[in-house]
Amino acid sequence: MMDRPSxxxxxxxxxxxxxxxxxxxxxxxxxxxxxxxxxxxxxDHRHVLCLHLGTPIPVSYRAGNYERQxxxxxxxxxxxxxxxxxxxxxxxxxxxxLLRLNPAVVQEAVExxxxxxxxxxxxxxxxxxxxxxxxxxxMMQAEERDAYPSGRxxxxxxxxxxxxxxxxxxxxxxxxxxxxxxxxxxWRLRRVIEYIEAHLDRDLTLAELAAVAGFSLSHxxxxxxxxxxxxxxxxxxxxRVERAxxxxxxxxxxxxxIALEAGFAHPSHMARCMRRVAGLSPSELAxxxxxxx
Length: 293
Fold this sequence. Notes:
Layout: E1 27-34, E2 37-40, E3 47-53, E4 57-63, E5 66-72, E6 77-80, E7 87-90, E8 94-101, H1 103-112, E9 125-128, H2 131-145, H3 151-170, H4 186-198, H5 206-213, H6 217-228, H7 232-250, H8 255-261, H9 267-278, H10 282-285
Antiparallel strand pairs: 1-8, 2-7, 3-6, 3-8, 4-5, 4-7, 6-9
Helix pairs in contact: 1-3, 2-3, 4-5, 5-6, 7-8, 7-9
């Protein structure tokens, strides 16, 4: 097998040990150049989806005894299962958007969809076109390009949606998203909201909020949305904007202090989110508040 391409980064070594593996993101993304010629894709402990970017290009693909040839077009993707390597023959240099999906979220989706032991393994595939997966890819690309303005919680939600869509596409059974007969019980909802309010300054994850509620990740997403009328990442964003609005009106703090307390990466991040949610900038909400030099 060829050396790992320099364009394909390793995850931080500290996160690969057993105790720390759970701290890896459920989904991350980066744009990678694809060299011309014959090469073996690097091994990864996560499932990797490669979305082709740009003009059509002839390629061939081999994973074990599975081999396929064809022309990749913009938005088509291939799936390289965790721990597998694939051999590629590419006629000319290309680019791919790589989505790396934690196997744990795939297993959780399988259980939530009631498939039992069926459909638990992702199969290698190539030249797949699916509007849902493509849309998730472009949203993750936008997040990565803008330094993840929506936070880890949004990426986690996309990871859960991606896992369920992949299982639905690759399973031979008729599957659907988990059905929720009712919303998150009031006392559990109250517990989650209290936790969110107490930890707004942190980069919250879907897994930790699901654990607070006492539900699986996939079920929690549906139950929470049914209870409050919006996805959990949107709810958290609105609470952050409200926290920032209150602090701005109180005055006496710098923009940086307010942004960090409300869970934003920096004042510019806070300003973008406030304009998106409230339609106003921080200076319009509190024109006399103290600003950083």
